[in-house]
Design goal:
The chain is of the alpha+beta class. Helices cover 25% and strands 28% of the residues. It has a five-stranded antiparallel sheet. The C terminus is likely disordered.
Length: 159
């Protein structure tokens, strides 16, 4: 065996880097599949209602052969108005096995989510914050028993 001490080993992924963001997208994809058994044939709107947590709404916004765009949210009553928070638009890239939080409410209502608000700055930082929030929220939803099953509660799309 020949060993060469001059071969540079890859650097570990730095949090907040583009490479780490791609790893986060991969993790989001896997965690999303904890909640969704199948991305094919999704209804326009579906709800998960486990005991001990708020109903979680999943809306299908767009489906194509290579991507699916979803909206994932809770709805709260705020001063007689129905407010979505967190309100995430998620694009799933089927061929790459990635899920990206593309957009979210600019300022969260719930105090625990405010640390994920993003101030104006670089795009990488905004994407990192959005997708880190999605990753943690998907884990929370899974831990609280949320699941969307084929043939589950199908309802008309909510506004």
């Amino acid at each position: 065996m020949i060993a060469d001490g001059s071969i540079a080993l890859p650097c570990p992924t730095q949090p907040g880097s583009f490479t780490a963001l791609m790893h986060l997208y991969e993790s989001n994809y896997l965690r999303l599949h904890w909640l969704l058994e199948d991305l094919d044939d999704l209804p326009a709107c579906q709800w998960s209602r486990p005991r001990g947590d708020l109903p979680l709404c999943l809306q299908l916004l767009e489906a194509s052969p290579y991507t699916t765009t979803l909206r994932l949210t809770y709805f709260f009553d705020e001063g007689g108005e129905r407010v979505a928070d967190p309100d995430l638009t998620i694009r799933v890239y089927h061929d790459a096995g990635l899920a990206e939080a593309m957009a979210c409410r600019p300022h969260h209502l719930h105090h625990a989510l405010r640390r994920f608000d993003t101030a104006p700055g670089d795009e990488l930082g905004r994407r990192w914050a959005r997708n880190n929030m999605l990753n943690k929220w998907l884990e929370y939803c899974h831990d609280h028993g949320h699941r969307f099953r084929p043939g589950g509660a199908r309802v008309a799309a909510a506004g």
